[in-house]
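## Example record

The block below lists the input lines for one assembly entry, exactly as stored, with component labels intact.
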Amino acid sequence: MMFAVLCIAFFQFFYPYHLFIKEQLQLFLFTSEYFISYLSKPASLASYLGDFFTQFFYLRWGGAIVLALLLCVEWQLIVCLLRKLGAEKNVLLYAFFPIIGEWVLHCGLGYSVSSTITVILCIIIFLLYATIKKRFIAFLVAILLQPILYALLGSGLFTFNLLLLLTDSIRKEKLNLLAYVILFTGILIPLLLRSHYLLTIEQAYIYPHREFMAFVPPLLIIMLAGGMSSREVRIYTSDIRYTPFLFGLQLILLIGGVLSRANFHREKILSLDSEAYFGNWPKVLKQASSYNLNDNIATYYTNLALARYGQLPDHILEFYQPATDGLFLPVNPNASPLTIFFSNEVFFYLGDMNMAQHSSMLGMIFSPNNRSSRLIKRLAEINMINGEKEAARKYLRMLEPTLFHRVWAKKRLQILDADTLIASTDAWLKEKRSMIPKRDTLRSSTDYLASLNLLASSNPANKMAVDYLLCYHLLSKDIRSFTNAYNRYVKDTSSVLPRIYGEALLISLLNSKATDKEVQSYGISPDMIREFAEYTRLYEQSNGRGELLQAKFGKSYWFYFHFAKMDTK
Amino acid sequence: MKQIIYYLLLLLLIIQSGCNRPSEIQKIDGMPPIYPDYTNITIPYNIAPLNFLLRNKPQSVEVSVKGKNTSFVVYGNEKIQFPERKWRSLLESEKGNDITVEVTVEKDGKWYRYAAFKWKVSIHKIDSYLSYRRIEPGYEVWNKIQICQRNLENFSEKVLADNNLTDGSCMNCHIYNQHQKDVSLFHLRGKKGGTILNRNGKLRKLNTKGVNSFAPAVYGAFHPSGRFGVFSQNTIIPEFHAYRSERLEVYDTASDLVILDFDNNSLNTSLLVSGDQTLETFPVFSADGKSVYYCAAPQLPLPDSIRSLRYSLMRIDFDEKSGKFGNKIDTILSANSLQQSVSFPRVSPNGRFLLFCVSDYGTFPIWHNETDLRMLDLKTGGVDSLKQVNAWYSDSYHSWSSESRWFVFASKRDNGIYGKPYFSYIDNNGVASKPFVLPQKDPAYYDYTLISFNIPELSKEGVSFGAMDVEDAYFNLPTDEMK
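Predicted structure tokens for the full assembly:
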């Protein structure tokens, strides 16, 4: 009970966002076609059940509770297994070692619920198998089970076989020929079935796992089973004097394992991302301010949140800015799958639906199973905005047989049915459609400036696009382009002059030796002009040493302009 | 005895009451809302069952299928899946006849019968196999690609190549010679890739980028003899549109034609079909192998002039003895006259027709919504606009059956994003029929797939190699260099 509470508390209060993203990176459908698709790879049952449980990670508390429950079930099963082998005292404690492994592994993005389910199912099947009394029949059943187990559990087959051989060797002094046949068959089966499942050799042996570390819990189970099968070891381990030591050791292993495996930096990034996905932009801003991370993805979401409130130019330099990599996430062959997954957001909010679609497609393509509930929702939205009803309908239909996205899909199908491209009755659709470009151009997928220029020129009232354009120039230190864009889209509007624009304009006006009248036409405050004069004086005195200016002007654009180092790669 | 009869009758009553049968049926004038749309089509007698579902989600469905010689009734909820054996015997017995299909549905406790539609069973069978590439429509990048071969007479599918086994490399079209399984090829990119040539089940890996070439082979076709292949070599640039449903644009900054001699491992070209002034692409041999049809456009500053880039349909002679291009080029269809751009010419095996795509501009019709198919009658020179075949969204990449009676093409008519193979019949008068989509065992399959079917090609028999052979070829086969 206490374990369950601790497990839930950890994953809910300290590590929930790693669980949210796992649900977003998959799509679970209650259809026969979807179920059948699992048969094309080994570990079909484990994978299907694993993905079934993962869908509950969508709910707040859902992931934590599901994980805790599964680990409790696994723990109990290990206890049953060890008791069957003769263990009596301290069984609960010893059985906890593989659970520590599971807990630690679940702190990584690469370890899935399917891996835990593989272990659970393996133990259940083994315990059932162990009820067969006649040895010869048991071996025959085991041989017949080999391909079935591989089909259902994948690499769980090896755990089953090792448990079988272990328990058999306990009963008899030496293994007979049939035991070796089982061992050999188990090793061969993945190779023999590789051509059926179209897997590489490595994949054939580790499926459904994605990393070799996933073998740690089953290995620990085998080691425990092996140990407990020895009378001497059982006597030794049942000594309750060792209990506090065991308990302490496990605590150290758990804490140490979590600290080494869990990535709390990434957890913060994922929190920004997930809260943005959930639409909690005030929370995104609040978290960004408190985290104050030097990370381009953190900056990406911070900038998005600021821009959504029209505050990007006011506060952009209060946060870490890796040049323009905090405005758009570069998608290239070296980009991580998560970066690709997040890359569509900025385009969607700016109004460039075609690039948002391209990025969403890429994000889905590079998801572990090439399916993502979140990106399918995004693609549905994009196509609704673009007026591509049938494409939107396809994606919305895909969400209908899901547990947690069907209501969302149904509502949008109703909007779709009521919508005409010209006169949408839905305010959200109307607003989004007003932002999309009104004319066409051709650009490469990484030509962000082409995208921004097109958005701004199509709809100068798209403040977010205009701010992104201006800030893009500023972060690239392209003062001339900034000034041209500012003059075109912002000057002579009634908006209050944001600080960073004023600071940049002063640089531009100084460079162009502007007259007083020209300076006044921008509405720059006298205080700012005085500060600029002071900065300029100090800069000239500093001989290029930024530390003299950092304290007073570290957050100014002037400081960025002079001292921020651009990555030339 | 009486007791036995009584219990049997009781059992029958119970069974009968368990099965919902239509009663008090109201007639509806319109067509049933079935998906896929299999209403009023011509089908080959060897096609797999045309399973479909009802979009209006009824509680029960009854479908009666009536031919001259055979008829039966099938029941379902939302989906109708015809028993394969009954289906095969239906089509066998109804060759040349019409089958009338009537759909009756139960919705909200009431029964409705839609207007009947017909399936015309052609006496001409379609080639039994269809190969295609399964790929996510991710524009310029990919992750998982397979080249598959589907038996059109049932639902079995074989994977010919899977890029999971070849370093995640890209794979291009799988093309056959004369629809035969014994000679085919496809391009396998990647570090250890090459053009995989299949001859009688034996695979060879070719480097089709010659010493003086700027790119390896891309689009191409076999000579009827199987000895030669004609290919384009293209430098391909993908870029993105900004406006609404126009997504991807792909253009060539350079493209030329080459002849590959598979027996001598040699490559040659001609100044007439290579060079900087003109872009040549999509070559294909005529049915008699004496000429090559291809598309050509004058080189323009790109991408600025992309909307002015239009390809004409051209022909150049081919001399089989020397394996070289001839000296004369003919313009078959001028882009200036058409005010459209031609792509993907494909000649029917009987030499009568040439199918091609037209789009407003450019050379990548698959992402142009306005792309349509056209059919040129090589005897009369007339162009059929194929109104009954084309639909909204792109209809492109077509291939003929061996008897020139059927053609398959990739269409995005459902939603503009995901392509599927569609089949159309050519009757004795050269008129094409309403197309129908490749049937699937589960009719909801297309609703839930996120994969496009790309580059469909028909063949009479299934190839003998599979994905593991291709894996072996990728990693272990030495590459034959072209001279």
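The longest strand of chain A covers residues 442-443. Chain A has a mean pLDDT of 90.
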